[in-house]
Design goal:
This protein is of the alpha+beta class. Helix content is about 30%, strand content about 25%. The protein has 2 domains: about 5-80, Rossmann fold (3-Layer(aba) Sandwich); about 95-130, no CATH class.
């Protein structure tokens, strides 16, 4: 089978002393379901954040297809991956359009293109009446 994600010797250390992820390696093959399980504090969320380019690893390597997440342009990588967290991911005190704006900036989308896309999304998600 084709390997889609390859993680080699991944480590994340915070503040030079707190080891959150310690030298893990795994591969995920195409068309498979992969579960990352472990007790609280075992580094699952930190690993997910590194896999989605939210955090940079202290050491080790993450490859998605032919993209090296440590060396490739993060914005290009973010355009081909997706992440849906278990909990609520929108900021509840912001309007829908403000949430759209925050998340679209992470992808470095031009301002005029963002605003045009917001209208499309509101329509597609049937949220026109709730945008404020």
């Amino acid at each position: 089978m084709e390997t889609i994600i390859s993680v080699s010797n991944l480590t994340k250390v915070f503040n030079g002393k707190t080891v959150a992820v310690n030298d893990i390696s795994f591969e995920i093959e195409k068309n498979t379901i992969f579960g990352l399980i472990g007790p609280n504090g075992s580094g699952k969320t930190t690993t997910q954040r590194m896999l989605t380019t939210i955090l940079r690893p202290t050491s080790g390597r993450i490859k998605y297809k032919d993209h090296d997440l440590a060396h490739d342009d993060v914005n290009k990588v973010r355009q081909i991956i997706g992440y849906v967290p278990q909990g609520e991911s929108l900021y509840g005190d912001l309007e829908i359009l403000e949430n759209f704006d925050i998340f679209s900036r992470a992808f470095d989308i031009d301002a005029s293109k963002r605003k045009a896309r917001f209208g499309e999304l509101l329509t597609k998600l049937h949220l026109e009446n709730r945008k404020k």
